[in-house]
Amino acid sequence: MNCVFCAIAAGELPAELLYEDEHCLVLMDIYPLRPGHVLVVSREHYPYLHLAPEAVREAMFALSQRVMQAQRKLGWGQQGINWLLNDGPAANQHVPHCHMHQIAREPGDTLALLWRTVVRFVPVGRAKVMADVRLRAAQLREALNG
Which of 14, 18, 53, 139 is the most exposed place for a label (fewest CB within 10 A)? Predict the structure, then answer.
């Protein structure tokens, strides 16, 4: 199997890891749709949410709430956070491994969100994007663990 999230969980690929436990990993999306875009990922490989055991599903949602509280503690998404779970290829799931996106939103950011959707995988400006990802990872890691 060639799964990026399985490789991250196994320590074979680097990631901006924020938290991990026996069920889940929390990491920064390296192609963020908005600043502070976070992924809550099942540790084990489940292509669909319904294939994950109940304990894993419960852990993912509980951890997502904890991440949301940390995001808001930092002032991100005060007026809204998207929880997004693309469940299967027809739902635009790019990595067939159960994961949730948490995207902190701000009023009036819809055009910026749509633009990032179009250009997020374009290599231009990657150094600036990754610098922001690393900075926000450090902030969120401290908020989660502090």
Answer: 14
Model confidence at 146: pLDDT above 80: no
How far is Cα 74 from Cα 81, in angstroms, rounded to an integer?
13
Backbone angles phi, psi at 113, to 5 degrees: -65, -45
**114 is written with which tokens?**
């749509």
Rama region for 11: left / alpha / beta (φ>0; ψ in -120 to 50; rest): left
Contact 37, 65 (CB under 8 A): no
Average pLDDT, the chain: 94
The residues assigned a catalytic role are 99
Q: Is the pTM of this model over 0.90?
A: yes
User: What's the order of all strands across the beta sheet hosting 38-42?
Assistant: 17-20, 24-28, 38-42, 99-104, 81-84
